[in-house]
TrEMBL record:
InterPro entries recorded: Cyt_c-like_dom, Cyt_c-like_dom_sf, Cyt_C_IC, Cytochrome_c4-like, Cytochrome_c_Oxidase_Subunit
Protein name per its UniProtKB record: Cytochrome c4
SUPFAM superfamilies for the chain: Cytochrome c
Signal peptide: 1-20
Localization per Swiss-Prot or TrEMBL: Periplasm
Gene3D superfamilies xrefs: Cytochrome c-like domain
Domain Cytochrome c per the UniProt entry, residue ranges: 22-107, 115-206
Source organism of the structure: Shewanella sedimentimangrovi
Top-level taxonomy: Bacteria, Pseudomonadati, Pseudomonadota, Gammaproteobacteria, Alteromonadales
Entry annotated with the keyword Isomerase: no
Length: 206
């Protein structure tokens, strides 16, 4: 809870800070190379790759910077991914802002999810205080849209398999570029059944 309170305080600090904005039209052209995995409009058809459409621009910028940092440091910093590291390395700051602006301007396509376990809704909306699991909606909102300035990504319409992969990575600390280690802390308390249920519930958010 202390980590959550600290992270939420970032929102107030950042809200008065002017942030650069990219050019979505320029980003559309620059993002063509990304379309094989993420789709022409950011709605990936391959469930192991994330949908980028409708994602907050600042969050996308951070991830691209983190991929660059990991590639430069051999994984000691940032977010390590052999594919994305190679894709992100040649990008300039302007490229990153433009690509992020393009994807942020696109509409994410909703997913119809069947047989969502009740456990998924329970954990997302209420958490599990007996295990110290904070409700996901505390940061990502009831509809999964997150909070741009606070750095919490939108989860709406995301592939269940991608969510499952990322929660598992946070749990094992294979991914460690989350704000104040919040996701590692929460995911570390989740079981396989929890992750499966949450992934399906989140994927169905509209």
């Amino acid at each position: 809870m202390k980590k959550l309170a600290l992270a939420l305080s970032v929102l107030a600090a950042m809200s008065s800070t002017a942030m650069a904005e990219g050019n979505a039209e320029a980003g559309k052209t620059k993002a063509l190379v990304c379309s094989a995995c993420h789709g022409m409009d950011g709605n990936s058809m391959i469930d192991m790759y994330p949908k980028l459409a409708g994602q907050h621009a600042h969050y996308l910028e951070k991830q691209l910077h983190d991929f660059q940092s990991a590639a430069k440091s051999g994984g000691k910093e940032g977010r390590m991914d052999p594919i994305m590291g190679g894709m992100a390395m040649p990008l300039s700051q302007q490229d990153i802002e433009d690509v992020a602006a393009f994807y942020a301007s696109q509409a994410v396509q909703a997913i119809e999810v069947q047989d969502v376990p009740a456990l998924g809704k329970q954990l997302y909306t209420g958490g599990d205080m007996s295990r110290g699991v904070t409700a996901c909606m505390a940061c990502h909102g009831p509809d999964g849209k997150g909070a741009d300035l606070a750095g919490f990504p939108s989860l709406t319409g995301q592939h269940a398999n991608y969510i499952k992969i990322q929660l598992t990575k946070f749990r094992t600390k294979a991914r460690a570029n989350d704000l104040n280690g919040m996701m590692q802390d929460i995911a570390g308390k989740l079981t396989d059944a929890d992750i499966e249920a949450l992934s399906k519930y989140i994927a169905g958010l509209k």
